[in-house]
Task: inverse folding
């Protein structure tokens, strides 16, 4: 039991519903993005925007496929981590992320999960 008159947590008062939405937009580690743009923003260049949308949709599909696999929880965790590295790569180098995602999906199509 907490006997002090202070709240049992460190830090400021809990966020109101107004500020909670703004806080959710920040990166988890509070570092600013390299170029000042959010990952949620679609680029102005139509070709880049199309690739961005394609990679986003294919990542969503790949996550669903991994979730549906009949493999151990450890295997699913490892596969999900691989997809998260592709997601992180997409923030820095979208064409490379697309290539990595294509290889990942091809490996899933060919048979046993490509757990590394």
Result:
């Amino acid at each position: 039991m907490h006997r002090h008159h202070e709240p049992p947590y460190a830090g400021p008062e809990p966020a109101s519903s107004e500020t909670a939405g703004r806080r959710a937009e920040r990166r988890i580690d509070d570092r600013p993005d390299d170029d000042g743009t959010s990952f949620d923003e679609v680029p102005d260049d139509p070709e880049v925007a199309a690739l961005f949308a394609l990679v986003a949709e294919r990542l969503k599909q790949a996550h669903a496929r991994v979730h549906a696999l009949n493999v151990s929880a450890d295997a699913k965790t490892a596969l999900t981590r691989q997809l998260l590295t592709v997601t992180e790569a997409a923030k820095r180098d979208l064409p490379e992320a697309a290539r990595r995602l294509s290889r990942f999906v091809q490996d899933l199509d060919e048979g046993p999960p490509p757990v590394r």
